[in-house]
Amino acid sequence: MQNRIPVLKTYKIYIAGKFERSESGRYYALKDKSGNQIANICLSSRKDFRNAVVSARNAFAGWSAKTAYNRSQILYRMAEMMEGRSAQFTDELMLEGLTRKAAETQVAESIDCLIYYAGWCDKYQQVFGSVNPVASSHFNFSVPEPVGVVSIIAPEMNTLIGLVTATAPVIASGNTCVVLASQENPLSTLTFTEVLGTSDLPGGVINILTGKKGELLEPFSNHMDVNAVAYHGDDSEERKMIQQNAALNVRRVKIYDSKKVSLVKAQNPYRVMDFTEIKTTWHPIGE
Amino acid sequence: MKSDFRHIIPIDKVGIEERVARFNTRSIKKESKMFAMRLAMQMIDLTTLEGMDTDRKVEQLCNKAIRPFNGPHEIPKVAAICVYPPFVSTAKKALGDSGVHVASVATSFPSGHASMSEKIAEVKYCVNEGADEIDMVISRGEFLKGNYNFTFDEVCQIKEACGKAHLKVILETGELQTLENVRKASDIAMYAGADFIKTSTGKVSPAATQPVTLVMLEAIRDYYLKTGIKIGMKPAGGIRDTKTALRYLVMVKETLGSDWLNPDLFRFGASALANDLIMQIVKQETGVYQSGDYFSKD
Fold this sequence. Notes:
The complex is a heterodimer.
Chain A: E1 13-15, E2 18-20, E3 27-31, E4 37-42, H1 46-65, H2 68-84, H3 86-95, H4 100-120, H5 124-128, E5 130-132, E6 138-146, E7 149-153, H6 159-172, E8 176-180, H7 187-198, E9 206-209, H8 213-222, E10 228-232, H9 236-246, E11 252-256, H10 270-273, E12 276-284
Chain B: H1 13-23, H2 30-42, E1 44-47, H3 55-66, E2 80-83, H4 88-95, E3 101-105, H5 116-129, E4 133-137, H6 140-145, H7 148-162, E5 166-170, H8 179-191, E6 196-198, H9 210-227, E7 232-234, H10 242-256, E8 268-270, H11 272-286
Parallel strand pairs in B: 1-2, 1-8, 2-3, 3-4, 4-5, 5-6, 6-7
Helix pairs in contact in B: 1-9, 2-10, 2-11, 3-4, 5-7, 7-8, 8-9, 9-10
């Protein structure tokens, strides 16, 4: 088998639980540090984004209606599938320029991060919900609920832990999302789609696109059917544009410092709360 | 004008499907898309045919027919409202002099199983109540038995009962099994006096499909070439989004020509389509993808 030609993988985007090429048919070349081409990456268009939002919207009712316990099981299952691909993730992070040790640490932390948010699925409502004292014959209580479809611009650095930190807390509460992968380093994100495809996560809950921020930030932030935007990055122009576009339907915008995603402190239940809204119920009671 | 219905006009199924696939590659953009979307809106028979329909539901639908959208975008009103017979007078009253027609299904819709006298009485009732258009169903059982005379006579008698009202004949193509049967049923309906031929009741799956519609459009074309009479076409059921609607318009334009691109000769039987068209028109004018959250539910 000395003369065997290696079979290279075609990386695709992930919409509605299916691996697809961009409808635009465009792609860009991904190169390693020494300038050799590693792969062709889909250059998604705004129509791909539109399709992804439709699939996220369709998936929302089913995903948010699952029991919290079941969502927790599915996030745990995703972590299990990641564990089995540790070696591949490590190799891909090393292509981004990480040392083997740093890459291995990041993969392990990413898996632990998923487990962490799996645990929060059935706890955030207990911890952040409340029973409120009121001056009438009502039982008054407040519970956080998912906002709907969230568009996520993933961080450019620490791509794997960054991706997991960006998505896991969003879906933990029952939201669905569309993610724009790092433009420079999309490989580990694309391998993550294979984790999604082989875990029990319903199609459409996480949709992942690759492409240029310059083209996609606009639709990611002005689509009327997106309920919240999560931006991981430090570019002040981009931040401003997202906030302006979000004003169209007064959707929520959360901006995260891209360097902090890898810190242990970045993992906290307030990330789950960032994409929930509080529903308060007044329930009449007798004497 | 005579035609021998014992003849079978063979249909090339593969050819029809290839032709349809070709239509679907047409790219309609910018001004043409805006024009097509507004045109499609004017061609809609806004339909509610549910057992749970009420007068209030019909009135609400009529309001939507006249003013499809409240806002800064120019959205034309639809062609007609399509309801069950008991709601014709309600719809007539609600629509007033808006120019939107009232269409009523009749002849024991959707099965068509009733005695001829009952069917005629139902049609007359609808016409007296003020219906401008009657959507009848053919007896598919008799047609499939090969009792074509029955089908022909049935359409003739209903046409007579319609008086001035326009007659649309529903073939229920989902039950006709072959494209040859669709062609034959179309011919029978047209020769018997139909003003429109319509694919489906919407109660049987599959409802309107592109191949079936193309066969019917070709039947209309052949009838026009023979007689000089323009018959209308109404695909109904399953046309939910703008993209599909535009594909149908392309098909009409390239099979029958621009003459048929008007609400007098082409209609969509639909309910959800109207909302999608409004959303897409707003999207086209604002450049921003829209959300169902900001448009009425039905």
